């Protein structure tokens, strides 16, 4: 900042200036930081300087980009914009810094003295200091569910103080209610943009409204006239709903701003993670960081984002305890447990429970609990719930209700729920979908888009194998929501076990993961050698049990863990170099599960050479391809997985060629386990595929259908689209298990029925296909016909393969 630069010049005027200095960070380790006056500014006073606080994917940033274009292109004003946000896919804080003025703008990007501050989410006021940047007399615009007469009582003390002391002009609008009314759902961007133009007076109001509408036409025209009209309605009625608040003279609030993370969070989370969450990352002293740069895992649990306006509420009397809601939740927010009813003695008064229905859990109680502050309101759990309330068929066994009134009570219930014991996984038959709900997810509350189609698979992976998994993650959405500052969703269980996770480059992730496998295999070989050498010291019985352990079941793995525990105790008492060496690697004696994870851009395209090479290696690694059919993370570019007829970046006229069949290609190896799954269409088949792939002693590949915002429809319908993809034959569910050959069976099993609906019934629910029918109707027709032919011919090929008799010679092997 100019203030920091001034600090440097001031230092240079000193008699003995610091040599080797830092500025802008608080270096309390080597003490090289320079002092400076943060209030120093070079900014001329007659400029509009605005700061907007928005929520990732609420449209604030795109609306501000449009405002800059409107002012920059349609007036004589100069404009500058800078947008601060982290790389989470949705639901994180975005701060837009905008400047407008009659003179050219030669300035730094960040605005730290604003004369217009807009807060697009009311709950930000609870934890963020949004008015710190407001200068005296500034305008403060707040999206508030409370009207001008009642909002004051809902503001924390600090906010009231700032409004009074800085003599701010304070305006409110209930943008969410308005957006809902005009049919825009939760898209409040147009409404807030209109308010900005109305209050800031950068352009006369009438002209501003006309320009906004022109940009709406330009931006949303491709989504159809109805979307454009809804936005026009929003613009027209915004002014009526914008109100100035009569600011009282005194601070009256009885509550204050809350800390960014709860006091029970670990010290590092308090000192570093919490400060980054609060937007004070730049002020963290160097001494707060670990010298090796590591960050702890399992930290999303401390960031209570509270982004859901509505959350699911459980009705125990209607629920059949099928666990479908728990299985499908992309954010691991809704969970269930069975437990001894005696444990309910200390339960909060509103904690819900019902006798467990499964005979296996006779006498136990069952609870479905939602973490109210981590829910994203994606609605998938309600959508998937199969049970209707008999008295009121409109209602299911879970129903969305407003979050704020029940937030506090449900947060307490969640806390109570978490401390209930986990169900003993050794007792569960994991092949049954109904049991998955009882496995603790070790991937939770990620920053993926609400309703993301990728994350349920990762959550499932973490539930089934997370306590012994090693994951190599290719760059893509999954590396961003999977391992990003300030928090990470990969976590650990009560025993401290969780996945080892690392992100590698896009182009070499498969090799990176194979490196993990090779290292493990080498360590295992060495550990087995050392065990034999130390047999006399350790005891032959234990050594033989460790060497010959059957780890093909949860029980077997648990028993091996117990043996390794005893081994480590023995080794720590032995004073031999071999014992010390074995102690460092003894954990590899417990079976590990190596996964290569990434999107279609990785596996079909840029990392294809590597993933093919690794599958051909015969090594025991499992590839999970999260197939969104585009490069989602970078905005939806075409990949070889993009289907014929779909629009993507670099395929604006619809992709002319068919999707590459990676599944078929991998099957041709003959010794690779391969599956194509769609959890929304058949959860049982997905679970079976994961278990079989992991159990297979060789390479495996799972290609998973993932609905994505890039497909252009409301993701609440994602599961229906998965079903339609399977019913149309576009996404045949298959499992190819080379082990079946040994039993004289055909390795290929088709798990879905022959196509029963035309392709168009699936594809035309999605903008990526539908928009071509508007822009190029003839081309769309032609591509649809070809795509339908692709479906039919591919189905025939699969059918043929699955019906083939197995070679009797192979059976004998
Ligand atoms: C060699 C290389 N090229 C481009 C990029 C930029 N990049 C990062 S993620 C990504 C898209 C990932 O797409 P995909 O593998 O399909 O995963 P998704 O985001 O869809 O989950 C791209 C192009 C990169 N990181 N490395
Ligand atoms: S609404 Fe979405 S995030 Fe919330 S519990 Fe249901 S599935 Fe999970
Ligand atoms: S999906 Fe519905 S019926 Fe099934 S466990 Fe969840 S709430 Fe109960
Ligand atoms: S895969 Fe699609 S829906 Fe999921 S986080 Fe990425 S962009 Fe969002």
CATH topology of the domain at 48-244: Pyruvate-ferredoxin Oxidoreductase, domain 3
The bound ligands are: thiamine diphosphate, iron/sulfur cluster
What are the segments in which pLDDT stays under 50 over at least 5 consecutive residues?
none
Strand order of the largest sheet: 14-13-15-16-20-19-21-22
* CATH architecture annotation name of the domain at 48-244: 3-Layer(aba) Sandwich
Largest sheet: 8 strands, mixed
> Treating each run of at least 4 consecutive H or I residues as one helix, how many helices?
30
Quick one: CATH class of the domain at 48-244? Answer: Alpha Beta
β-strand percent reads 5-15%
Let me know the average pLDDT.
95
Helix percentage: 25-40%
CATH homologous superfamily placement of the domain at 48-244: Pyruvate-ferredoxin oxidoreductase, PFOR, domain III
Quickly give the structural class.
Answer: alpha/beta
Number of strand segments: 22
How does the overall form come out from the CA principal axes? globular
Distance between the termini: 72 Å
Q: Radius of gyration, rounded?
A: 29 Å
